[in-house]
């Protein structure tokens, strides 16, 4: 049997391990993908450290995957060998439960998560379900496309569903892997875009990405500065800091909304009167449509800033991501 290289986690908290294993065979309802690139996301820490019930180890992480169709299951008719495709966090659904019948596939009662329930893209090949795949256009390289399938999908989706309209004040909290994409999307969607970040180091980059205003959160009361600008219709929180997010809520205008798209164990502490007084709200968002994101990104030339690593340096790439030292997304290139 032909072999492939892959990075696996043998148990919660174990080091990444470079292994050789047989290339898997797709069943009748599956597709074999030859992986070209896989983005590294903070969500991969769930597989690395076991922060999710029901993970069966060993597991191959990775849910920002771009590659080419290498082999088709017998029942697959709408994809072709050689076609370039992408697979994200959502790895498949049943099409039969109540959620699926409503078209809410992400809430499928037996939904699969790439890199948690099924082996992901830290490998030269992976199995994918056709209902979870999208076609990747020629205008995007595989390396540039990979981060759009999670970081891009989440930030673009959150802004799309926020209710903000062109000309509204939208603040992006954090200018890292998620934030640098969120800024580009906010500008392209026609929002007056404010970047909130610690220190002055990222001000030049924020302006280069098109931000209209930069606020140094270490340099004064950021919420008060947002109010001086009229109050934010949306604050998109991409930096995992519960205290800072809580402190920003007074910067929302009436009917303003803070949307959290980053995972943190921190607690939010928000006076209830602050929410009631201005009909403000706080919500989380993990959805978004990959096809819409990729289409919009190509049309408006939104491109992630990435550092590329070979498969065998997955641990280094992951550590740089976790310590926020990567500029700005780590991508494995096979």
How many structural domains in the coordinates?
Answer: 2
Instruction: Determine the N-to-C terminus distance.
Output: 20 Å
Dominant shape: globular
Q: How much of the polypeptide forms β-strand, as a percent range?
A: 25-35%
Annotation, overall tally of beta strands: 17
- pLDDT averaged residue by residue: 96
CATH architecture of the largest domain: Alpha-Beta Complex
What is the CATH homologous superfamily assignment of the largest domain? Medium-chain alcohol dehydrogenases, catalytic domain
Largest sheet: 7 strands, mixed
Class of the largest domain, according to the CATH hierarchy? Alpha Beta
CATH topology of the largest domain: Quinone Oxidoreductase, Chain A, domain 1
Unreliable parts: none
The radius of gyration over CA amounts to 20 Å
Structural class: alpha/beta
SSE order, one letter for each helix or strand: EEEHEEEHEEEHHEHEHEHEHEHEHEHE
Helical region count? 11
Describe this structure in words.
There is one protein chain. By secondary structure, this protein is an alpha/beta fold. The chain has eleven helices and 17 strands. It has helices at residues 44-49, 98-101, 142-145, 151-160, 179-188, 203-208, 222-228, 242-248, 272-278, 290-300, 314-322; strands at 3-8, 17-22, 31-40, 64-72, 84-87, 90-92, 112-113, 125-128, 133-135, 169-173, 192-197, 213-216, 232-237, 252-260, 281-284, 306-310, 329-333. The strands form four sheets. Strands 3, 4, 5, 8, 9, 16 and 17 form a seven-stranded mixed β-sheet that branches. A six-stranded parallel β-sheet has the order 12-11-10-13-14-15, sandwiched between helices. Strands 1-2 form a two-stranded antiparallel ribbon. Helix 9 (272-278) links the parallel strand 14 and strand 15 (281-284). The radius of gyration is 20 Å and the shape is globular. The mean pLDDT is 96.
